[in-house]
Design brief:
8-stranded mixed sheet, 15 helices, two-stranded antiparallel sheet, 428 residues, 44% helix, 12% strand, alpha+beta
Length: 428
């Protein structure tokens, strides 16, 4: 007898479990493949073999399976954070706009029911029922969530906004932009809610749509595009675990795919750089662009390794370069930035120094009006700067510290730069 009260029918000549000579019967007195000794109609729990494949569940996961699971979890977790932010922001917007209209008339949580109207009666009543169940079972951990609005899903919040768009129109310019962004999020929301595989392309599309939607809904301070690397949802939540390191790249090529030189240096108000030849700046940011940047008010300090120092010769031997090859490259870079400085109306804002110490790292410390960023690489014995791992650090802007930097790496490299700058010599 099954749990539903229905009994399986006994075997007959046309079904498994019938006589051996019936169609589909198995030889050797094992009807339907059931081992001898098992009553007709019963199911054997003993594992059987079909050809060379052993029947039964495979419970072991290998390294590839665990790697796939971790990838899925990372992508789904990142997407969930964005979706959570969007849903909370949209809930706050809907509440702020519609509550003052409906609550004075209907009161309490009935204002949500009234706002949904006949078209939304079914899903709003479902939200009311879910809230009651959550109350009884103790799922409401925060009293602030004990309202019907907190139990509406993203599509339902969107429906409220669309139904009452004249109420929202004074606050938002483009209804179409909001709906398109929510459409792009719907695939991600469906995949994450059902714990299915999320591709990288869909995740990146969802992140772009979320950032755009948060900007439209006024969920952040200023436009995300105003900063070179805007703080995303994941960094904002778990960034403290990694000090101020916001990304790590195995080499400079991969860094420049995500953070081109124009995005790194463009709009800077203060630029300090230290290294052997500073190729990331000199070879990837044109002299005319550097002139315009300085004339716009950026203060530039560049610190090169002295091409005549013994440290350059040691570095040449480490990299297997011909004698004088590296020193000539550094000299060419210094001549380039000297020409840039000569074309400025105020050359005092563009300083060039050289140092004679053993180079330990290269760093580009870039600060804008409201945010800062640093690109840092350590020198490896057998790897050129292009091939060395890269750290990208979040710093404060030119206006000064705005958050706790006690455990950050940006101030550490800033202090190291200032120390070496004090002991360096200016280039005439």
């Amino acid at each position: 007898m099954s749990s539903g009260g229905l009994e399986l029918p006994p075997g007959d000549s046309g079904h498994e479990g019938g006589p051996a000579d019936a169609p589909g019967g198995a030889p050797g007195g094992a009807p339907g493949g059931v081992p001898t000794g098992v009553p007709a109609g019963a199911v054997s729990l003993a594992p059987t073999e079909v050809g060379s494949v052993r029947a039964g569940a495979e419970l072991d996961w290998g390294a590839d399976a665990w790697s796939e699971v971790r990838t899925r979890a990372q992508r789904a977790g990142r997407a969930y954070i964005w979706l959570n932010l969007i849903e909370q922001r949209l809930r706050a917007v809907v509440g702020a706009v519609l509550r003052p209209i409906y609550e004075p008339v209907h009161g309490g949580d009935d204002w949500v029911v009234a706002a949904a109207g006949p078209a939304g009666q079914e899903w709003v009543q479902r939200a009311v029922a879910v809230r009651e169940v959550s109350r009884r079972k103790g799922y409401l951990l925060d009293p602030a969530d004990d309202n019907v609005l907190s139990f509406l899903t993203l599509p339902q919040l969107r429906e409220l906004m669309v139904q009452h768009w004249p109420c929202f129109e004074p606050y938002f310019d483009d209804r179409r932009e909001i709906e398109l962004a929510l459409d792009e999020l719907e695939v991600t929301r469906n995949v994450v809610s059902r714990n299915r595989a999320l591709s990288r392309a869909v995740l990146e599309q969802a992140e772009r749509a979320s950032a755009r939607l948060l900007e439209v809904l006024g969920g952040g301070a200023g436009s995300p595009s105003a900063d070179r690397l805007p703080i995303d949802a994941v960094e904002d939540l778990v960034g403290d675990r990694y000090a101020d390191v916001i990304s790590v790249h195995p080499d400079r090529v991969r860094l420049q795919r995500q953070l081109p030189a124009e995005d790194l240096f463009g709009g800077a108000r203060r630029l300090d750089a230290i290294g052997i030849g500073l190729n990331l700046l000199v070879q990837n940011f044109s002299g005319r662009r550097l002139v315009r940047l300085t004339e716009a008010g950026c203060r530039v300090r560049l610190l090169f390794l002295n091409p005549a120092s013994s440290a350059v010769k040691r570095r040449e031997r480490e990299l297997g370069l011909r004698k004088g090859e590296l020193s000539r490259s550094v000299e060419m870079n210094i001549l380039h930035v000297r020409r840039v400085r000569a074309g400025l109306r105020d050359p005092s804002r563009f300083e060039i120094h050289v140092f004679d110490e053993t180079p330990r790292f290269t760093a580009y410390l870039v600060e804008g009006e409201s945010s800062g960023i640093a690109v840092v690489q350590s020198y490896l014995r057998r790897a050129r700067g292009m091939e060395a791992p890269v750290l990208v650090l979040r710093g404060d802007g030119a206006r000064g510290p705005s958050r706790d930097t006690e455990h950050g790496l940006f101030p550490t490299y800033r202090e190291e730069f200032e120390s070496i700058w004090e002991d360096s010599r200016p280039v005439s």
